[in-house]
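queue> pop job 88
queue> type: inverse folding (structure -> sequence)
queue> payload:
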């Protein structure tokens, strides 16, 4: 059997370094998710010289400022509404997907040290709003998607299994005490006999 490698998997140190930037609110983390351009460029734009012209990469929420980079003409806003074309256009452009909260919070906690205070803050900031959603749409369930801006109106399927499953994983494995979370991760990593 030939050995194969996945060269795209970074080392733990490199991944933690990248996540420190992605999860920093003064860099890439925003109330609506991860920015594509660091907020640092709001005060420190980056100039690119192409064929004698100067093009600028700066922080401009919602709209691009240069035709060189295509602007942001496909932006449909953070609301999943309208006809099928409008909804399809918005589905991956600003819509919030509750099931992605689990991997996000997992990374956020790991970068900040996994302690009890960090877990409590994550539970308050990220998980509690998800629990509040349980009484909004499909009562006792979590919707497929939600608008990215307040009031975060639930959209799509009101009874989405992967959203509920990820909320359970987040509650039990990620936000539990450090001892419980470590033990649960080890148990989940064990091969299944059969």
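queue> result:
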């Amino acid at each position: 059997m030939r050995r194969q490698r996945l060269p795209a998997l970074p080392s733990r140190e490199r991944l933690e370094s990248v996540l420190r930037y992605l999860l920093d609110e003064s860099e890439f983390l925003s109330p609506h998710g991860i920015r594509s351009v660091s907020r640092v460029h709001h005060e420190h734009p980056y100039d690119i010289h192409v064929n004698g012209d100067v093009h600028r990469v700066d922080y401009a929420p919602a709209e691009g400022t240069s035709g060189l980079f295509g602007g942001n003409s496909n932006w449909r806003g953070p609301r999943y509404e309208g006809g099928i074309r409008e909804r399809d256009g918005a589905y991956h452009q600003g819509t919030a997907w509750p099931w992605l909260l689990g991997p996000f919070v997992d990374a956020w906690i790991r970068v900040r040290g996994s302690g009890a205070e960090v877990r409590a803050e994550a539970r308050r900031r990220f998980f509690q709003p998800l629990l509040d959603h349980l009484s909004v749409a499909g009562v006792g369930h979590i919707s497929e998607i939600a608008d990215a801006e307040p009031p975060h109106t639930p959209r799509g399927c009101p009874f989405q299994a992967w959203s509920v499953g990820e909320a359970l994983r987040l509650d039990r494995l990620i936000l539990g005490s450090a001892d419980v979370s470590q033990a649960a991760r080890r148990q989940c990593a064990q091969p299944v006999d059969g």
